[in-house]
Amino acid sequence: TTGTTVLAFDMGASSGRALIGQLQADANGDRKLEVSEIHRFPNHAIQVGNHLHWDILRLLHEMKKGIRLAFQNGYEPSAFGIDTWGVDFGLLDANGELLGNPYHYRDSQTDGLIEEVSGLIGQEALFKQSGLQFMPFNTLYQLYAMKKAASPKLDVAQTLLLTPDLLTYLLTGIKSCEFTMATTTQLFHPGTQSWNSELMDKLGIPSRLFLTPVQPGTIIGPLSDTVVDELGVSSMLAVAVGTHDTESAIAAVPAGDEPFAFLVCGTWSLLGTEMDGPLLSDDTLKLDFSNEGGVGGTYQLLKNIMGLWLLQECKREWDEQGNEIGFPELVRLAEQAEPFRSLVHPDDPRFFSPGGMANKIRAICEETNQPVPTSEGEIVRCILESLALRYRQALEQAERLTERTYGGLHMVGGGIQNRLLCEFTANAIGKPVWAGPIEASAIGNMLMQLVALGQCRDLREARKLVAASFPIDVYEPSYDAAGWSSAYGTFLGFGRV
Ligand code: LFR
C-alpha cells in the first residue's frame, strides 16, 4: 500500500539534506515511516569584510535541486518542510526583497553584547521574559548589534524572517513565522506567548518586523508559480514544521509517556528534558538553561553545549593543512590514545569563534596544568572525554532543576555515528544511552508534516511511529567507572556551570 509522501529539508551548520519520507502500512495496517536521502550538500560560512555570512542563495539553489531530484526519482511529495539551526534571520524590504546576506550566528558583531544588554535590562529581568540561556548569538543581540552599527538595513526593513521562514518564503512567496524558531530569539515572551515589544522598544529594535507566530503543523501554502514553472514539477504544500532543527530532532525521540532526557548531537549538543511549559525558576537562571518552545505544545528545558564543533573545527584545520584524516580514522586514533590525559570545559567561550581550535585546546590544557595534547588522537580523545563529562554535568543539572531522575539518555542526530562518543557518554553518566535515530531532525520535520496532513494525530502518535520505524543502539556503561568518576572530579574543578 502506498501512503503519503513528504519531503524534508534539514539544514545544518556544515551540511544540508533533502530527504523523502514515505508513510507505509503493511497488511495488518501497521504503519512505518521509510526515509531516504535524495540530496546532500555542504553549507559554508563565508567571511565578507568584517562579517561572517550564510550563503542563503546557494542553499535555495540546492533546495530547488532537491525538489527537482525528488520528482525525477519518481516521488510525488504532497508537502515539504524546512528546519534549520536557530536564531538567524533575513530582512525583507517593502517590496519583499531580501536585504543583504543574512549574518552567521558566529559573526563577531555580538561580542560583549550579553554584558551590555544585561546591564541595560537586568539579567534576571531578561531571563524571566525570555526563558533563555545567555548565548551571544541570540537574535536579540544580533539586532542590537545592527542597531548600534546604525545599519540602514534596519531602517528600511519591513519584515524579519527567521532562516526556515525565509527559505519557505523564497519558495512560496508567503511570509510566515513559526513558533519554535521564534522562541530562540530571546525576544519572544514565554509568559504572554507573544513578541516582547516592550523589550524591543527599550533596545531600539523595530517591533514592526515581527509576524505573529504559527504553531508547528500549520500549512503555509503551495510552491509559488514561478518555482513550479522553473523546476517543471507539480506543486506541493509548505508546512511550518518544528522549523528549529533541535525541536524537530526532539520530536523524533522514540520516547514513551514517561519523562525522558535527550541529547541532540550535531555541531551543537543540546541536552535536556521535555516539559509542559517553561521553567523560569531562579535555579534555571543560575544553571543557565534554556526554555525553548517545542512541537505539540511542549517546552524543552535544555543546555546548549558547544558540541562536536570542537572536533569539526580541528578537522577543518587539519584538512586545510593538507593533513586530511576522516572522522572514522580520527575516532580510531582517539580510541588508542591514553585515557583522561587532559580535559577541557567544552563551553569555554574561546571555542565559540571559528579557527585555531587545536591551539585553543592546547592553551587551556596548559593553563590548567595538564599535559598538553599534541597528536590528533590526543586532541580528539580530549574533546570526546570532555564532552561526555559535560553531558554528565548537564544531565545532573537537568535532574536537579526538574526534581526528576532519568533512567538513561536518548541520543539522536548525526553525532551518534561517533560510537566512541556514545560509549563515553554511557560511561560518564553511568546509565544506558539509547542512540537513534540519526536523521532525527529530518524525521521530526516529516512527522509534523504528517500531522498537518491529518496522517498522524499528535506528537505521542508520531513518536510511536518513530519507535516502530527505526532501530536504536543501546550502550550500557561498561568501562572504568572509577576512572570516569575521578575525571568528573577534575572536570567540575573547572568551575563552569
Ligand atoms: C543546533 C542549533 C541550536 C542553536 C544553534 C544555533 O543546530 O539549532 O539549537 O542554539 O544551532 O542556532
TrEMBL record:
Chain ranges passing through the membrane: none
A GO CC term assigned to this protein in UniProt: cytosol
GO MF annotations, alphabetized: ATP binding; glycerol kinase activity; rhamnulokinase activity
UniProt entry keywords in alphabetical sequence: ATP-binding, Disulfide bond, Kinase, Nucleotide-binding, Rhamnose metabolism, Transferase
Protein name: Rhamnulokinase
Listed PANTHER family: L-RHAMNULOKINASE (PTHR10196:SF93), SUGAR KINASE (PTHR10196)
Domain Carbohydrate kinase FGGY C-terminal: 262-453
A single BP term in Gene Ontology: rhamnose catabolic process
Domain of life the protein comes from: Bacteria
Family that this chain belongs to: Belongs to the FGGY kinase family.
Pfam families in the cross-refs: FGGY_C, FGGY_N
Domain annotation Carbohydrate kinase FGGY N-terminal: ranges: 6-249
